[in-house]
UniProtKB/TrEMBL annotation:
InterPro entries: Ribosomal_uL22, Ribosomal_uL22_bac/chlpt-type, Ribosomal_uL22_bac/org-type, Ribosomal_uL22_CS, Ribosomal_uL22_sf. GO terms for cellular component: cytosolic large ribosomal subunit. This is Large ribosomal subunit protein uL22. PROSITE patterns: RIBOSOMAL_L22. One of its GO terms (molecular function) is rRNA binding. This protein binds specifically to 23S rRNA; its binding is stimulated by other ribosomal proteins, e.g., L4, L17, and L20. It is important during the early stages of 50S assembly. It makes multiple contacts with different domains of the 23S rRNA in the assembled 50S subunit and ribosome. Pfam families: Ribosomal_L22. Keywords: Ribonucleoprotein, Ribosomal protein, RNA-binding, rRNA-binding. Part of the 50S ribosomal subunit. GO terms for biological process: translation. Belongs to the universal ribosomal protein uL22 family.
């Protein structure tokens, strides 16, 4: 019998992509996510391509996945898409120890993050003549 299909959480003119457990701190990832928030997708892809941040390549792949989801799964027009939401979540933190002088040790934390990108199709406003 199985479960009933879950309702779609996004609107009909939206698509999203999620990248989980990215090896970067949420604070650093949020700097790159803020760079593309609210921009048209072609402009956001150009900004990510020429960004000097290491993590911008992963953000670009996630954005391209959201665009592909919009085009293939939801039949949205790629030319009228913009980045509606780009938010970062905290994931696990690996704890490691680093040897220090005099037989001591200090803790090294290696954080991971989640990234969610939602793209939305812009509705063109009909101009009255």
């Amino acid at each position: 019998m199985g479960k009933a299909k879950a309702e779609r959480r996004l609107k009909d003119n939206e698509a999203k992509a999620v990248a989980r457990t990215i090896r970067v701190s949420p604070q650093k990832l949020n700097l790159v996510a803020a760079m593309i928030r609210g921009k048209k997708v072609d402009r956001a892809l150009a900004d990510l391509t020429f960004s000097r941040k290491r993590i911008s390549e992963t953000v670009k792949k996630t954005l391209e996945s959201a665009i592909a989801n919009a085009e293939n799964n939801h039949d949205l027009d790629v030319d009228s898409l913009f980045v509606a939401e780009a938010y970062v979540g905290k994931s696990i933190t690996m704890k490691r120890f680093h040897a220090r002088g005099r037989g001591r040790a200090s803790r090294v934390e290696k954080p991971f993050s989640h990234l969610t990108i939602v793209v939305r199709e812009v509705e063109e406003l009909e101009e009255a003549a």
